[in-house]
Amino acid sequence: MGEAQSRKRALRQVDALTRHAATTAGLIPLAGGLPSEQQFPRRALADAFLRVVSQSGTPALQYGWPEGMQSLRERIASRLKARGLVNLEAADVLITNGAQQAITMAIELLTKPGQSIAVDAQSYPSALELFRSKGLTLVPMERAREASAVYVMPTVANPGGATMTAEARGRLGGIRRPIIEDEAYAELAFAGPPERPIAVDARERVFLVGTFSKTLCPGLRVGWLIVPPRWRQRSLRLKQATDLQSNSLAQAVTDEFLARDDFDRRLEILRRFYRQRARQLAAAIRRHLPSWRFDFPAGGFGLWVETDARVDEVAFLEAAVKEGVGFDPGMLFESWPHEGPTCLRLCFSLGRAIDFDEGARRLARAWRHLGGRRPPARPRPACPAPANRRRSGASAGFARRRR
Ligand SMILES: Cc1ncc(COP(=O)(O)O)c(C=O)c1O
Question: Measured in angstroms, how far is the CA atom of residue 157 from the centroid of ligand 1?
Answer without folding.
Answer: 11
